[in-house]
């Protein structure tokens, strides 16, 4: 009788167990009452699904703690999203150890502290050894756990925005503590001091400490070797010139000011030492330049084998593409990054097939089977901007999915679910393929995310499908790329970087390995209604080294205020020797 009652209260768990699902989303209006009946915890039955890779429980005001058994019952978990609940003041019991967890989102809860036994996991051995992204924004944290770096030594992104922090733990900035941390965001806190030891964050690219109570910025910040973007707006800095600079100058100028000592830049090396280091750097650059002089022909030969990417800035573009974002998408899939790439050759041989295969592989790997992010690629010529990224009720959202007729999203989801059931029966196995693997990602959503062009046509329905209207064909040379995520903006940027790099590699391979047109290639183009132009080779110059052009795309709110532009100066920061990015 008790088991039947549990099945009736939690049908999602029974379905996930029966279908051996690897992803599960619990949300919606009925969730709060069921969690309250379970004592403010997740039901123990949930922790008997050891195959789960992705678990999201969001928007539940009665969820006060995850409950015991999570670490033991979900050993293969890759992503855990528990945002906009009522977790707090601590986590009892602690979450870890979770040996395979990569993404942890605890944003929008009521956490005040994460002490040992009520925090993220043990420090010895590390409780979260593979964690890459940690989001603790929108809580009430007064301090961070001192052993955070030991608990999650491979952390790359840490978001602490909107808490009550007045200091970072000293251990966070110790040499080698977080060697991979590239993004640290702690805006809207009460931070009074930033340690000079922050220079030990060797991989730091983005630092946002805006709207705090800092009076000084340590000069050693300029020693972070990869730092490209800083935000200190909204602090009351003693150095008035520096305060003006953080509101109006580029990061490079601010770091240069700190590097030479500035005027009262706080703790760190003195001005003379900064000048000495800059002189030393200059001499090293000169020596390197001489070493690289070498033979002119050898350098020229090496250049022909490099991948070239040229960035076209919004200010240089007579007709830049813009994406406006409606606030209603915030609770569905809030993060989006876009870019335009011109000069792809998808016409020759199997180049289109290689491109689509590469996109699928990115979905499987970096995008974690679309649970972390989703890529969509469009034929730019079929798009009329500006675009609007918003959310619509399933019964109102209409799209012409790839290879299908126009349909409402509600009916499309039902069709795909029926196809999935039929697929299981025919193949006599629990796993399904294709789009059917991603249906659960929208379970419980009242609205579905969508990207709409200026004609009012839905061209993208993430994470499910694109529109037939903007389908990539062999004649496509200019593309609009979008990456969306429910996890973080940085994940969108990282995946967009990887996608554009892969496109450059594929394009160069196509240009260097001339392939003949096959019958199937012609058939594909005939079906699309466009026959290929045998003279078309849009990206190749006389020497076959013309770069792909990457045009910046601005994402703004409905008032026109900038949310993100890609690629910014911190994006496409590619250190590989075979790639040149021309800005």
TrEMBL record:
One of its GO terms (biological process) is phenylalanyl-tRNA aminoacylation. Residues 332-508 form the B3/B4 tRNA-binding domain. Residues 270-281 have a biased composition (Basic and acidic residues). Residues 406-433 form a coiled coil. It holds the Pfam family LRR_8. The keyword Coiled coil applies. One of its GO terms (molecular function) is phenylalanine-tRNA ligase activity. Residues 265-300, 514-546 are annotated as: Disordered. Keywords: Coiled coil, Leucine-rich repeat, Repeat. It comes from the Eukaryota. Residues 282-291 have a biased composition (Basic residues). This is Leucine-rich repeat-containing protein 47. The gene is LRRC47.
């Amino acid at each position: 009788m008790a088991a039947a009652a549990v099945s009736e209260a939690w049908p999602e768990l029974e379905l996930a167990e029966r279908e051996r699902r690897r992803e599960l989303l619990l949300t919606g209006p009925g969730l709060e009452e069921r969690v309250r009946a379970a004592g403010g915890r997740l039901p123990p039955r949930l922790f008997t699904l050891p195959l789960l890779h992705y678990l999201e429980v969001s928007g539940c005001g009665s969820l006060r703690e995850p409950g015991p058994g999570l670490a033991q019952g979900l050993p293969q978990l890759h992503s855990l999203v528990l945002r906009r609940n009522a977790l707090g003041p601590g986590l009892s019991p602690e979450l870890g150890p979770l040996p395979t967890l990569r993404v942890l989102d605890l944003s929008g809860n009521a956490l005040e502290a994460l002490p040992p036994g009520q925090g993220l996991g043990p420090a010895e051995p590390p409780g979260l050894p593979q964690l890459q992204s940690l989001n603790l924004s929108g809580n009430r944290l007064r301090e961070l756990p001192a052993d955070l770096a030991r608990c999650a030594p491979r952390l790359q992104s840490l978001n602490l925005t909107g808490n009550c922090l007045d200091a970072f733990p000293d251990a966070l900035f110790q040499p080698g503590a977080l060697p991979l941390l590239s993004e640290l965001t702690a805006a809207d806190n009460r931070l009074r001091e930033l340690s000079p030891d922050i220079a030990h964050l060797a991989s730091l690219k983005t630092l946002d400490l805006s709207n705090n109570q800092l009076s000084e910025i340590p000069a050693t910040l300029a020693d972070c070797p990869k730092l490209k973007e800083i935000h200190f707006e909204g602090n009351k800095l003693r150095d008035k010139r520096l305060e003006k600079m953080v509101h109006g100058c580029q990061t490079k100028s601010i770091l240069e000011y700190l590097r030479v000592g500035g005027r009262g830049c706080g703790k760190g090396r003195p001005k003379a030492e900064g000048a000495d280091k800059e002189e030393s750097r200059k001499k090293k650059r000169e020596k390197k330049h001489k070493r690289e002089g070498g033979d002119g022909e050898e350098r020229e030969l090496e250049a022909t084998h490099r991948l070239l990417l040229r960035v076209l800035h919004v200010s240089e573009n007579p007709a830049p593409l813009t994406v406006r974002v409606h606030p209603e998408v915030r609770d569905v899939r809030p993060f989006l990054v876009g870019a335009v790439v011109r000069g792809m050759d998808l016409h020759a041989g199997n180049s289109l097939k290689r491109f689509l295969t590469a996109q699928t592989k990115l979905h499987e790997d970096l995008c974690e089977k679309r649970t972390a992010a989703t890529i969509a690629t469009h034929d730019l010529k079929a798009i009329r901007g500006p675009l609007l990224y918003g959310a619509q009720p399933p019964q109102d959202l209409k799209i012409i999915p790839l290879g299908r007729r126009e349909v409402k999203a509600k009916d499309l989801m039902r069709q795909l679910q029926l196809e999935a059931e039929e697929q299981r029966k025919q193949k006599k196995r629990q796993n399904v393929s294709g789009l059917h693997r991603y249906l659960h990602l929208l379970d419980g959503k009242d609205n579905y995310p969508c990207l709409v062009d200026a004609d009012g046509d839905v061209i993208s329905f993430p994470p499910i499908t694109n529109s037939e209207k903007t389908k990539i064909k062999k004649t496509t040379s200019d593309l609009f790329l979008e990456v969306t995520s429910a996890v973080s903006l940085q994940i969108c940027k990282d995946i967009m970087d990887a996608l554009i790099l892969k496109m450059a590699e594929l394009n160069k391979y196509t240009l260097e390995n001339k392939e003949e047109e096959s019958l199937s290639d012609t058939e594909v183009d005939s079906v699309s209604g466009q026959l290929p132009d045998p003279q078309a080779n849009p990206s190749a110059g006389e020497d076959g080294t013309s770069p792909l052009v990457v045009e910046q795309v601005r994402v703004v709110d409905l008032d026109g205020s900038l949310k993100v532009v890609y690629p910014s100066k911190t994006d496409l920061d590619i250190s590989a020797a075979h790639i040149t990015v021309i800005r």
